[in-house]
């Protein structure tokens, strides 16, 4: 008689963004005329760059012609895309990689969830708190997190690294030694970053204790400050201890287009076993590649025209971030982020809980944000707003928030 | 110190099709002028249907306009696609489903690999032998298969159901009770099918012993005979014991376009727990949907024009299948399949092993096929040819094979 994966039953409630979407739907069903503005889910709103859509039209035409039709893609992804990634995302930051250390995927969410497959269940993970829920939930699903302690809102077998105003929203090296460390900079949800010297300390620490860092750099395009690293491989020794996950979702607006990639360097080993080879095996066995058309779209992001256009998109969102930050501050809110990231992290006023503030904003301002507590216990009392709305909506949302 | 998933180290060699591709590359690097014809990997060669590429061009245009731009897709996939699937793949076969029992994905390979996530490691699987390697390899990766016994070419904790000429290439109900049963009809690699009464026996058996059937119907579009079921849900009681996986790869040529879907009926339960809810949780947490553009392409497959065009593609491949089958028979080979499936399964001549015959075809005919033994121990002495080549290549390949 078949048995289910009982770990799933330990998961508390549903995935954060599903819950928010549900609350939003329910509110709309009662208040049909409400003009809700979402600064909640980190979803982009600007259309794809012309260079990208041109490349896709061309690729669609190739798929309609027998002589240029493409079937199954190469297992690691098309070389044209991996070459463009290597040149533009790494070599110009002083990082060299082999092309077969780059694995094209359908996005950072899949990769950050699936990467756990190549590790033993018997690993203790450390995560920032607050944290992008996928890291914890996917580890919980595979049985790596122990039990969920509902009263503490935390898992029994996870090392939480609090990121609060006391720590400047960055994690401190944990007292208990973890096996796998999830880091995300620029950070989702807090928008915080650390500089290269600080990241080097994490690399040194991982090398010392034999931990593997899963480095999520999905927001690197938003870095505006000089000394903030774009890749963990800018740090010495990182290739021997870190996997880096990247996305096209936020730098090029691919949330509905789906493309990402993961770097697993050959130097990253456990004894004789290269983690790169394990990931290659997983990739080849459980995945059949991103669509050709989408990989061509990804290549176009790195074209001259593509770079210029996507840079403008990022600048547009970052101007939104500036507006949110400054308007909130002028209204007396304590907030951070929004300098190297499209996220603004604010303290809820008057000791409200994160969900209380969510309901307040939804009901009084018709603005949807994300409750900090949804990202972990140390997120309680905080709230995330994203800069991905339109300019008009962002200004309107802030006007409404200021009136509360 | 981090620990890897040691199950990966038990996997024998690399994934079958990677090995074939490597052998092919090596041969080409030595014999640069060789005109290799591949009837090996089951990869399509006809361009996408006009209805499909038209829909994609339109979707690309939508993505380039702010008012029609699409970010993250709904978690289960766009309703327009799920509705088209329900109407065309199920309702017209007398099967009704709820729309939220249909989960859009990037393909059947991902789904058939990932579906294991929602089951306990402590389940014994039964597979046809020979079998599509992904079922076994992904279960081995998660630790469900025990140890690999190299001399027997089988896993210690898997129930193998031999499909040989003695069984008419269909499995018989296993003597040992499995928890999870993988069935694929029309079958990859043998091209065999079973009729509705025979499939009903499997459903009855699964219900009796409390097993869950993972039913891979990726090749249903190739069914030409009346009494062969297109969906397992045509059988009574199947919703309480079966998950069905479908693909757009073979019916519409989407191997490089990537789209599939999986049905997990709400009736399929373990105690109070609906497997549909577990899969929904996995889907929402570890996946961000197929690209909007590709989901629109999928919808177009079900349009009037799309149906007509893809039907012609299937007919084209099935004419290839007929040619392969008849030419092989006229040359004295024993072969089966090719009636309800694009695969022809032949007995290697003169007691050759499958890989010996692979090398012979590669060297003497410059034709690439797939060794039956790569699909499991009972595939030894057999060989798979696919009907997915061009007509010209198919005819040429068979001429060369006949000359050996």
Summarize the amount of helix of chain A as a percent range. 25-40%
Shape, per Cα inertia axes of chain A? globular
Structural class of chain A: alpha/beta
CATH architecture of the largest domain in chain A: 3-Layer(aba) Sandwich
CATH superfamily of the largest domain in chain A: Type I PLP-dependent aspartate aminotransferase-like (Major domain)
CATH top level class name of the largest domain in chain A: Alpha Beta
CATH fold annotation of the largest domain in chain A: Aspartate Aminotransferase, domain 2
Structure description:
Two copies of one chain form a homodimer. Chain A has 404 residues and is of the alpha/beta class. The first copy, chain A, has twelve helices and 17 strands. Chain A has helices at residues 7-10, 16-30, 50-63, 79-90, 108-114, 133-141, 196-209, 275-286, 292-301, 304-330, 354-365, 391-403; strands at 37-38, 102-105, 125-129, 148-149, 154-155, 158-162, 180-184, 212-216, 242-247, 260-263, 269-270, 273-274, 335-337, 343-347, 367-368, 370-371, 382-386. The first copy, chain A, has a seven-stranded mixed beta sheet with strand order 2-10-9-8-7-3-6, sandwiched between helices. A four-stranded antiparallel beta sheet of chain A has the order 13-14-17-16. A two-stranded parallel sheet of chain A has the order 1-15. In chain A, helix 4 (79-90) runs parallel beside helix 9 (292-301). The first copy, chain A, is globular, with a radius of gyration of 21 Å. The mean pLDDT of chain A is 96. Chains A and B meet through helix 3, helix 5, helix 6, helix 8 and helix 9 of A and helix 3, helix 5, helix 6, helix 8 and helix 9 of B.
